[in-house]
Amino acid sequence: MTHSIPSLTGFTEHHGEWFAEGVSLSALANQYGTPLYVYSKHAICTAYRAYDVACIRANGSRRARIHYAVKANSNLAVLDELKQLGAGFDLVSGGELARALHVGADPKSMVFAGVGKSSDEIKFALSVGVKCINVESIPELQRINSIAKSLGLRAPVSLRVNPDVDAQTHPYISTGLKDNKFGIAYFEVLKTYREAALLPHIDIVGIDCHIGSQITSTSPYLDALDKVLDLIDQLKRDGIVIHHLDLGGGLGIDYGSDAPPDITEFTNTLLNRVDERGFGHLDVILEPGRSLVGNAGVLLTQVEYLKTGADKNFCIVNAAMNDLMRPALYDAYHAIVPIKSGIGKAITYDVVGPVCESGDWLGKDRALAVQEGDVLAILSAGAYGFVMASNYNTRGRPAEVMVDGDQAYLVRERESVNSLFANERTIGPS
Ligand code: LLP
Fold it and tell me: Any idea what DSSP says for residue 109?
């Protein structure tokens, strides 16, 4: 497959030098060190607005709301910007709920999903008053009912439908097939809603569906949407009223060879189908993550060594699979560029990190004109980058910077090595 550099908002190249908005990436690498995640506020705002214009009808009324999927990038600065733009949040843990509350988001703008919510997490979500819990199994529904009873309230819920639709994406990030652990099997949904309607501490408010991530075609969404709308019709006949329809997230981005639909066009296509089928009265929720932040971030890394192997050349950099897990985990492609174009001839390298695993690679067979000490930018790293980082090999996680125009803000400090074992104890002499 041939790859090119994805077209980016917020990151530009001028005369061989890369910039995040008005700030040169070299200046950021010098000031904050590497590995370093750099985000463009402008890129996040632009992607959000592309969704938002499609969410508002010509007469000014709102037909859909964006609930940002916090898992994609949960830095407080990112959450705060999106909150200021008017986004709600899609959460999958008590930790993400705490983050959203920390930036002052309104619990009524939050939906809470996940197959394995603990009792504590359910209690936390219900006591702060989230808009809705997206329920993924019958035992979970029963647990929510009894926790709501103990709190003396009724829990607002949607059932997450597994529509058995193939999202045509990497198997690890496909969630709407009947073999996947997610959601309630399509054939059991009506029965489960009927049971839910009889539970005294459950308040049915919506219906939910999410079929996967990095989806680059609209047709699986329309298939899933049609199946969910059919269910809403049948529920109405049973006297069960649905107020909101949550279509999940999953719209893909261009990593270099992908051609996802344009955000506004994609959103209009889905919302028009909702209107055409006579469901325009429903509040629609979309839960994008990657398409809001994925191309709004890069990971800067410095070349440590250039090594000639028997069959391959290796460009050994100071970022690794612990900093950006996607290549190792999904065989994912991220474009890699020198932040200042180098002199000399490009050589083909595997770009690899210092971690002791052969799976520790960031890019394979990349033509680069680089020297030791040069800094590379790994593009499209704003989503599922830092959030999936680990401390493997006792490596502190990178710092994060957000750029807004000519200003750069350190939004997370580099993790110190001492902090990595601060919570550990030896057991002492025997
Ligand atoms: N809603 C639900 C219920 C989800 O499970 C997800 C993502 C989203 C929304 C947001 O999906 P997005 O718009 O970001 O595609 N680590 C993987 C992606 C995992 C996605 C998990 N669920 C990766 O790096 O590709």
Answer: G
